[in-house]
Amino acid sequence: MTSPAVSSRALPHPARDEIRLEEVLHALSDPIRLRIVRELAGARGELSCSHFELPVTKSTTTHHFRVLRESGVIRQVYRGTAKMNGLRRDELDDLFPGLMAALLDAAVRQAVRLGD
User: Fold this and answer.
1) Cross-referenced CDD domains, in alphabetical order (predicted)?
2) What is the pTM of this model?
3) What's the chain's Rg over C-alpha atoms?
């Protein structure tokens, strides 16, 4: 049996079949969230929340991660005291073939064009 302290740290995520395109697109429509996803896509594994240097407050950062998690774009798990984040790329690619590749490619092209 799991102790309450451990189970209270579990974060809710939509199951693969509950992920909806409009929620994914909404989550990725924000420049900060898109920046987080770009970093996760380029990482070899999970990244902690503290890895990201974002130009927003801690509470706003938390909000952005929650939107990404609740839309099904990322998976968040606690590893010790760190909240680790990983892109749900395989699931998203299965559900929406080509979407993430096209979005990430477009985001890189935009960043280059705008000098970000």
Assistant:
1) HTH_ARSR
2) 0.88
3) 15
Burial of 71 (0-12, 13-18, 19+ CB in 10 A): buried
> Rounded to the nearest 5 degrees, what angle is found at the Cα of 55, between the Cα atoms of 27 and 93?
30
Chain centroid to Cα 36, Å, comes to 6
Total number of domains constituting the chain:
1
Contacts of range 89-92, beta carbons closer than 8 Å, 24 or more positions apart: 89/41, 91/16, 91/19, 92/19, 92/24
Task: Write the CATH number for 20.
Answer: 1.10.10.10
How far lies 115's CA from each of 34, 83, 109, in Å?
16, 31, 10
Domain that holds residue 66: 4-114
Task: Please name the amino acid found at residue 20.
Answer: R
Question: What tens digit of pLDDT does each residue of 19-71 get?
Answer: 999 999 999 999 999 999 999 999 999 999 999 999 999 999 999 999 999 99
Q: Are 104 and 42 within 8 A, CB to CB?
A: no
Which tokens sit at 99? 């979407």
